[in-house]
Amino acid sequence: MAGFVRELERRGGPALRLEQRAAGGVGCVVWDAALVLAKFLETGACPLARRHVLELGAGTGAVGIMAATLGADVTVTDLEELQELLWANIEHNRHLVTGAVRAEVLKWGEDVTGFQPPPDYILMADCIYYEESLEPLLKTLKDLTGPDTCVLCCYEQRTMGKNPEIERKYFELLQVDFELEKIPLDKHDEEYRSEDIHIVNIHRKRASSPS
């Protein structure tokens, strides 16, 4: 299948080289939200060295591979049909990795026993676009997160069709079990930022809060 390479500049050395696919669905290209989240990780706002990191809906693996170049121990996950692309991109960039990175199949809503104990970070870029995937995604988040897991969710706000309703429903359901904090735009990478791309820091609600 025809592919084309997207380069993602890094502050600390050579660019990441990310193979994309000219066909094959939403997971096969590097979306803007993935670029914004990957570059946010480079700001150092979240310490990643020697941390256990899991990326959901990784697609090309851009965000997770960037985390691995920052010293994290990363598992990038997506459906079976994206594993070949994920492994290709891991191999293209392995010489830049200072932590570790591997790809695994994870279908939202299914058993996550193999991904325990809970990671330090879960990374998600542009995972909110199919209404039917919201509840499986939320189940996976609840099953994977521990009390100290930090979930970084980056998404592009879309105004077309059902997108606003899907986004509203997602955050409404999310707030049943999680606390949300939007990361201000001025904390994003100076160049890789946009008014309509948001990063949200998500944590499990504490079982009991002092009154």
What is this structure's SSE topology?
Blueprint: E1 3-10, E2 13-21, H1 32-42, E3 52-56, H2 62-69, E4 73-78, H3 83-93, E5 100-105, E6 121-125, H4 134-144, E7 150-156, H5 163-174, E8 178-182, E9 197-204
Parallel strand pairs: 3-4, 3-6, 4-5, 6-7
Antiparallel strand pairs: 1-2, 7-9, 8-9
Helix pairs in contact: 1-2
Which keywords apply here?
211 residues; alpha/beta; 7-stranded mixed sheet; two-stranded antiparallel sheet; 5 helices; 9 strands
Summarize the structure in words.
This protein is an alpha/beta fold and 211 residues long. It contains 5 helices and 9 strands, in the order ββαβαβαββαβαββ. A 7-stranded mixed beta sheet has the order 5-4-3-6-7-9-8, with helices on one face. A two-stranded antiparallel ribbon has the order 1-2. The longest helix has 12 residues, at 163-174.
Short description:
With 211 residues, the chain is an alpha/beta fold.
